[in-house]
Amino acid sequence: MTKQALIVVDIQNDYFPGGKWPLHEMDAAADNAARLIAAARAKGDLVVHVRHEFATAEAPFFAPGSPGAAIHAKVHNQDSEPVVLKHQVNAFRDTGLEPLLDAAGIEEVVICGAMSHMCVDAATRAAADLGYKVTVIHDACASRDLDFNGVQVPAAQAHAAFMAALGFAYATLSSTRDHLAA
């Protein structure tokens, strides 16, 4: 039997309505993440929460020790579940995530969270590069509107573009419903 872990990336208060950096449909993504967490717990899979904090209080969001940097109540970790604190976009960079997964004999990771175009993307690519089999649950991830060189990219399109790229070479993509039914 393959050992699997669920990695819940940056589902933190600042990404929700009223937070400092709200994402498009974050509530729906968090609801799906909560369903994934419940299923992983029921199966006895490792659930790892990743929490981002920037280095300074002047950060645009996720300021150290702020309420906005806390894990959202919809997906709050149980005492037995590890929380990996990161200060970079990539959850594997300068953290104990890889040693934690390796110590548990993890071969497959399921990733959900925020932001699709940043931390989910980075964690997915890193996990694949490190040799883990990766599944991204696309409807348990969220993004926001982007701007590049005067071009406005709506959140849904940014999310779709990044999911398409990850699905091409880095991960299997699945909906929450299909993943839970498998």
Automatic annotation (TrEMBL):
GO molecular function per UniProt: hydrolase activity
Isochorismatase-like domain: residues covered: 5-147
CDD domains, per the entry: nicotinamidase_related
Domain of life: Bacteria
Residues in coiled coil: none
SUPFAM superfamilies: Isochorismatase-like hydrolases
UniProt keyword annotation of Hydrolase present: yes
Keywords from the named record: Hydrolase
InterPro entries with a match to the protein in the record: Isochorismatase-like_dom (IPR000868), Isochorismatase-like_hydrls (IPR050272), Isochorismatase-like_sf (IPR036380)
Protein name, per record: Cysteine hydrolase
Native organism: Oleomonas cavernae
